[in-house]
Amino acid sequence: MKLNRWLATGMVVAAAAVAGAAPATASHPVDPTQQSLGQLGLRHDLYIGTAVDMAALADPADPQYRATVSTEFSSVTAENVMKWETLEPTRGTYNFGPADELIAFAKRNNQKVRGHVLVWQNQLPAWLTTGVNNGTIGKDELRDILRNHITTVVKHFKGKIWQWDVVNEAVSDPWDSPPTLHYKGFWAQHLGPGYIADAFRWARAADPKALLFYNDYNIEAFGSGDPANDKTQFVYDLAKALLRDRVPIDGIGSQGHLGTQYGNYDTLQVAAALKKFAGLGLATAFTEVDVRSVMTPGVQAGDSGEINPRLQASAANYSVLLQACLADRHCLSYTVWGFTDKHSWVPGWFTNPPEGLATIMDENYQPKRAYNLMKADLIHSGPPYVLPRVPQKPRR
Ligand code: XIL
Question: How many CA atoms lie within 13 A of 213 on its CB side?
């Protein structure tokens, strides 16, 4: 995109941002700090999304949740309601209602939808795991069940999903046993790693226009380069092998679940990783960003001397991932995994030690410095180094 077109896009987005108010003019420019993350992202053709908790979205006592999802973001992901246990709690009986509600909400608000998730070892229905474990569901039947699930779900949402997380978290971590990285979990155990290629092929057949992603955590940057212990390298090699076998994969989703107690990465490391995936011809996306902190007794007691450095470190990590994404034209979207500490999976999941403070707004929907830093990144970037995204076409 040429510079003048980029500026024109900015003006249109800016004008649209203040619908109802007088349009922006040279003498009365729009104040970008008053624009939403979603609006600011669109100047770069970058979609800024959030995971959505459907119970919170429907809660009349918490109208600010719904209002913020609709105004602040240009993309949404179902936090839970597109997972297998929710979609098919009883074998053969699909419960699409909550997911359909999210799709309708997104349509009303002009938002793209990331589909999450088709194949994962967690949040599977009990009928499936029990049947496999007690031997009543054998390998051939299990493969048929998986094909059926993918086909049914992807067809149901056909034309409504921009990006599907087809396979999620298939690769082990160095702290698992054995420590050499390997394909982990229910599906690899019962079907072997070939399920990954199968899943992408089945998904493509059911909706040829959706972008198909492999999604995982701890793949923000490359490490040693040895796939035995470098998860990013392992996933890179997986993607390369899938492409070699003409498997229809279009992108790599990097979840971006970080913690301020870890060293983490700088922007250039993360941008280099995105660029390397793009070198394979793949799109990328940050799909589940949050940056948690340990809730020490001091933090819990409200000691600002302990809280502030954590908020600052959290903001810096949000910014590292966003700047890296902005810097690579194949990074199509940046999704946070919840946007308020009032509704975040972190305190319920990371309990020993307790962790929290992971999102970009506090429990009262007040923006934290992470929110402001994200805004600043979106406002202060542009040509010549930050250019609008290159649209990814589904691979045939
Ligand atoms: C989490 C949800 O946020 C929780 O509400 C649920 O109890 C467990 O799953 N990686 C993923 C997401 O791909 O689906 C997970 O979501 C967080 C980790």
Answer: 29
Three-class secondary structure of residue 382 per DSSP: coil
State yes or no: pLDDT of 286 exceeds 80.
yes
Give dist(CA 33, CA 184) in Å, integer: 44
Please give the full DSSP string across 188-209, using - where no structure is assigned: HHHH-TTHHHHHHHHHHHH-TT
124, 213, 288, 346, best to mutate for ligand 1 pocket (most atoms within 8 Å of CB): 288
Write the CB contacts of 145 (distance below 8 Å, at least 6 apart in sequence): 128, 137
**Which of 12 and 44 is assigned the larger pLDDT?**
44
Number of helical (H) and strand (E) elements in the chain, helices listed first: 16, 10
- Just give the CATH number of 36-380: 3.20.20.80
The set of residues, in sequence order, having a beta carbon less than 8 Å from that of 272 and lying 6+ positions away, is: 221, 222
pTM (whole model) above 0.85:
yes
Residues known to be catalytic: 169, 288
For the record, the structure tokens of 223 come out as: 């490490």
pLDDT (0 to 100) of residue 11: 52
Q: How far apart are CA 316 and CA 50, in angstroms?
A: 19
Preceding peptide of 248 cis, ω within 30° = no
3-state secondary structure labels for all residues of 146-184? HHHHHHHHHHHCCCCCCEEEEEECCECCCCCCCCCCCEC
Residue owning the nearest CA to atom 15 of ligand 1: 79
Cβ(248)–Cβ(286) below 8 Å:
no
